[in-house]
Structures are given as structure tokens and as C-alpha cells.
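README, section 4: Worked example with a bound small molecule

Sections 1 through 3 covered apo chains. Here we extend the same pipeline to holo records, where the ligand is supplied as SMILES alongside the sequence. The molecule in this example is pyridoxal-5'-phosphate. Nothing else about the input changes; the structure line simply encodes the ligand pose together with the chain.
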Amino acid sequence: MAGYTPGEQPQEAGFIKLNTNENPYPPSPAVRAAIEEALRRGLQKYPDPMAGAFRRRAAELLGVDPDWILCGNGSDDILTIATRTFVGQGDLLRLPYPSYVLYKTLAQIQGARSEEVPFEADFTLSPRFAAATEGLRLAFLPNPNSPSGTVIPPETVLALAEQLPCPLLVDEAYADFAERNCLGLVARSEKILVSRSLSKSYALAGLRFGYVVAQPHLIREMVKVKDSYNCDALSIAAATAAIADQAWLRQTRAKILATRRRLTDAMRNLGFVTIDSHANFTWNVHPEHPARPLYEELKRHRILVRYMDYPGWGDGLRITVGTDDEIDACLDRLRKLV
Ligand SMILES: *Cc1c(COP(=O)(O)O)cnc(C)c1O
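The generated complex, written as C-alpha cells:
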């Protein structure tokens, strides 16, 4: 198998990094304080295997009981755990196309098959996405989707889940940047699991923390296949402090949404076709200028965006919403190129 290739993470400084949807703003100051406090308590002992402190705090915030939540070493860990729980060798995993490339790799690791159901031209999902197929055990739906930044409304997600013969994991890595989300559906359908990440909206990609919300009988099955200590003491303390500071989240989100508006308008003025985004990135295709040379030219000037090429669908540039200064630098460079 080929293995998943993450976006470039240059180890030298000096890059404007708009390629992996990190938050350009720092996390809440409470995060640093929580890590220092956890260090004072020491690291000799194993961490809480269920990350109880985080579960209790998240449960309060989300209005569910703690046993509806399972934590992971980033939400990628949650996706791995869910695949391991539901998809056996030779089984089938469904995903939309184009979407998060990792899902296919997770099926391969299980020795399972995957089936990509293409989005319609307007980024709605065809009824094929909910069709019952022999061996189908799990469906992934990133919502908002990457690379398009588009969303499927919760009522449509519920209808899909009701038709599907298997659980539907709604990957809400970007939900904090959208107007609506599917969290409220979990109590209504045992088939719906909602995963979240602290990497993007909470500015903690370097920490590695994510979680999933689902009905307790599903959480219990997932606990069986997870690594015993999949979250470490420092990340549990830091993630708990991060979600407790909702005011910080609101402030950084407001800045990012304002810059997303500016970026979208400016890209369109440059002649790009830019989809309205509900995430912290935009998807951009220029009708006259091929995307790859634009990506390479930007990179030569130490501006990294994500060039993505989806066979049968097309290629383009996914640009993370950075600070206003970072986006201005990127736009200035693009203005010289198109
Ligand atoms: C970034 C991302 C993730 C992974 O998030 P981590 O919590 O950093 O592992 C999962 N799904 C999608 C669609 C993402 O873009």
C-alpha cells in the first residue's frame, strides 16, 4: 500500500504556512498554565486512560454525559479507532469524493475496501451515498468538507444516516468555523458519530487532541480497540484548559471568519473560482492559470499553500486562512502571477 502523505511541514523558519489549515493565532493562555501545572504534578505516573477531566468538561459544554465522549491522540486517532471498531478485513468503508485522503488509507490498513461516492457538481451528496451495499460497515463524511469547505445541512445528514445500513461518522474537524453542526443528531440516532479536533479552531495542532461524541454503547465498543493510554497527561491538561476558554475561541474565530471573507473576495477579483467556505481555508481554481505552477511559484517565494489533484475531478489550490498579513503577502504574490 502507498500510505498517507501529510501536507509539507518545513522544519526551517521563514515560511508563510497556508497549507495544512493550522490556526495562525496562539491558543488560550490557559493552555500554557495547564501544561506547567501538569508538569509540576510530574510525569512518572501513567495518565488517565479515559481522559476523564476532559470528558467531564466537554460533556458540560456539549450538553451530553461524559460516557458519550471518547478522546483521541488527535482526531486522526479517533478515525483510526472507528475504522478498527467497525470495519473488518474485506469489509467496505464509504467516503465522499473528493474529501480527506486519509480515510482510504485507514481502510487499507484494515485490509478493507473503500468506495468513493463523488459529490454532485454543487457539492450535495447523491442518494448513492446512503445506498445499502454488501459488506458496508462504516461511512465517513467530513462536514465541512475538505478541500471544498462546503457543508451538508444537519437534516440531510440525519436522513442519510437513517437510510444507511451502518454507522456514519461525521468528521467535524472544521465545524467551529461553520454556522451549524451535527452534534445534536447524536442523541437522535445511534448511527451518528461526530468527531472533533482541537488542532484547527483551538490552535493546538502540535498538541494532538481530538474526540468523538456517540451513544455510550458505541463508545464502549471503541474503547476496546483503542491504545490503552492514547492521550498523554500534558495533552489532557492542555485540551481541558483550551475548551474551557470559549471566549478565546470566539475571538480567534471572529478574526478568521473576517479574513476568510477578504480572501474569498480578493481571490474572485483575481479571476479565481472560489467556493464559499464554511471552514478555515478556501478552494480556488483559476480558469486560465494551471494550479501547479502557481503553487510552485508561491513556494519559491516561501509561501506554502496546498496543491491538490484529485484524479477525475480536478486540481486546485487550498489556501488556509492565515493572519491578514499572511493572506496579503499571498495575494500580492498571486497578483504578479495571474
Ligand atoms: C485536520 C483534519 C483532521 C485531523 O485532525 P487532528 O485532530 O489534527 O488529527 C481530521 N479530519 C479532517 C477532515 C481534517 O482536515
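What to look for in the output: The mean pLDDT is 97. The chain has ten helices and twelve strands.

Section 5 describes how to batch many such records.
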